[in-house]
Structures are given as C-alpha cells and as structure tokens.
C-alpha cells in the first residue's frame, strides 16, 4: 500500500524560503510520476511541479525560477524547494504520485506567506 507523508509547511514572510518533503513508502520510487499540487481557498487544485521516472521536470509558469522539485530515490523522498515566496503562494500543498491508472495523495501541508 502506497503511503505519502508530507512535511515542511509553515508560516514564512514574503521573499522567504521553505522546503517541503514527501516521504513515500510501498512503491518503487523511480517507476512513478511524482508531483506537488496546491489548493488555495476558493480555488481549484493546480499542479505546481512534477518529476517523472526518468527525472524530467515540469513547472507551473507562476513558480518557474523560484521552485525546484527534486527526488532522492535512495530515501524515497521528493522535495519541493520554494524560494522567493509570495503571498499568492499561500495554499495547502499536496504530494501526488501516479503510475498508469493508480494515483495517491498525501494529506497536505499548509504554506502561508504573510508579513
């Protein structure tokens, strides 16, 4: 059974940084698409960053140049390094993994960017 546990959210001032972690178990890490999504109040969940099994990455235009997704296959952890945070980055961030027709979500971690 695949389990995902996120951590690293919190309150940060504009311009600050946070690193989110998603620890995965019950899966062969490199076989899965892995992504970070976020959902702000009143808005739809959106893809922020993704990394495929071969290491290719993709980012939403709103975070390009500020966020970096990375994967440590030895530890089964996927990270989201978030720099130059803006108030509009405030949301619940979710880790998602998928392979074929199977997909799994973490419980989410709150990120609040405010002075």
Description:
This protein is mainly beta. The protein has strands at residues 3-7, 10-12, 18-25, 33-39, 46-51, 57-59, 67-72, 77-82, 91-99, 102-105, 109-113. The strands form 2 sheets. Strands 2, 4, 5, 6, 9, 10 and 11 form a 7-stranded mixed sheet that branches. It is globular and about 40 Å long.
Short structural summary:
With 115 residues, the protein is an all-beta fold. The chain is built from no helices and eleven strands. Helices cover 0% and strands 54% of the residues.
Keywords:
single chain, 115 residues, mainly beta, 7-stranded mixed beta sheet, 4-stranded antiparallel beta sheet, 54% strand, globular
Strand content: over 45%
The run of helices and strands is EEEEEEEEEEE
Distance between the termini: 40 Å
The count of DSSP E runs of length 2 or more, i.e. the number of strands, is 11
Mean pLDDT metric: 94
Helix-strand category: mainly beta
DSSP helical segment count: 0
Rounded to an integer in angstroms, the radius of gyration calculated over CA atoms is: 13 Å
- How would a textbook summarize the main sheet? 7 strands, mixed
Shape designation = globular
Low-confidence stretches: none
Secondary structure elements and their pairing?
Elements: E1 3-7, E2 10-12, E3 18-25, E4 33-39, E5 46-51, E6 57-59, E7 67-72, E8 77-82, E9 91-99, E10 102-105, E11 109-113
Parallel strand pairs: 2-11
Antiparallel strand pairs: 1-3, 3-8, 4-5, 4-9, 5-6, 7-8, 9-10, 9-11
